[in-house]
From TrEMBL:
Bias-annotated ranges (Low complexity): 12-29
Keyword Phosphoprotein: no
Protein task: Required for flagellar hook formation. May act as a scaffolding protein.
Pfam families the record matches: FlgD, FlgD_ig
Domain FlgD/Vpr Ig-like, residue spans: 121-186
Any one GO biological process: bacterial-type flagellum organization
Keywords: Bacterial flagellum biogenesis
Keyword Iron-sulfur annotated: no
Identification of the protein by name: Basal-body rod modification protein FlgD
Taxonomic path: Bacteria, Pseudomonadati, Pseudomonadota, Alphaproteobacteria, Rhodobacterales
Superkingdom of the source species: Bacteria
Organism, as annotated: Paracoccus contaminans
Region (Disordered): 1-29
Similarity remark: Belongs to the FlgD family.
InterPro entries noted in UniProt: FlgD, FlgD/Vpr_Ig-like
């Protein structure tokens, strides 16, 4: 009579050994995703070692879902991006603080700027630089809104002039913020039109979204990028 052998009731089916390299497949997929995301450095290597250890010690009857690996990788990505953002902000703050330290040495000195400066009844020193070949120049005065309020004809000579707001008829402009531009002429032809630098004393400095701003008298201010010269007051 033939013998029939049966497995004990309730015994689990034999577990087939995983194919070589199958346990590391999720880790390899995570590595490929990380490379595509640009992850590098020891932090990601530590993450991979932790992920590989997790795979090796998982329950073969209840393996970790691939979606769980994707969630872990996404979480690691978010943390790393936040760390990089914090490092960038720290670097920017250090650069801005360094710029403010250097600007502190300008306080009490005069800067030449193309930004509007304050007129309080005292002459403003302007730097006149005619274009090459100019036979005459026109000094154009603009108010705080950028509107032309005065135009004067000057000799075509480079150097400083003292602007006191009075035109040829002796009419003076009121106190306020003014900027200037120079029109270089050859006969009646315009050769060049450009901003004129005006000197003003620095009374302070502050950080703004555009960089270091130098505080000038009368409510005026200028960015470092608008400064073309620095000197000690006469």
């Amino acid at each position: 009579m033939p013998m029939i052998t049966t497995a004990p009731t309730g015994s689990p089916a034999p577990v087939q050994p995983a194919a070589p390299g199958s346990a590391s497949a999720p880790a390899a997929s995570a590595a490929n995703n990380a490379e595509a995301s640009g992850f590098t450095g020891s932090d990601f290597q530590t993450f991979l070692r932790m992920l590989t250890t997790q795979i090796q010690n998982q329950d073969p009857l209840n393996p970790i879902e691939s979606s769980d690996f994707a969630v872990q990788l996404a979480t690691f990505s978010g943390v790393e991006q936040q760390v990089r953002t914090n490092q960038l902000l720290e670097s920017l703050n250090a650069q801005r603080a360094g710029g403010l330290d250097s600007a502190a040495g300008w306080i009490g000195k005069e800067v030449r700027t193309t930004a509007p400066v304050a007129y309080d009844g005292r002459p403003i020193s302007l730097s006149i630089e005619p274009a090459s070949g100019a036979t005459s120049v026109q000094l154009v005065t603009l108010d705080a809104l950028g509107k032309e309020v005065q135009r004067q004809t000057l000799p075509a000579r480079a150097g400083e002039v003292a602007w006191d707001s009075r035109n040829g008829a002796g009419t003076a402009l009121p106190n306020g913020l003014y900027s200037f531009k120079l029109v270089s002429l050859k006969g009646e032809d315009i050769l060049h039109t450009g901003a004129v630098g005006a000197y003003a004393r620095v009374t302070g400095a502050e950080l703004t979204s555009k960089g270091v701003s130098l505080i000038l008298p009368g409510g005026a201010s200028t960015l470092e990028s608008e400064v073309t010269a620095l000197r000690s007051p006469a």
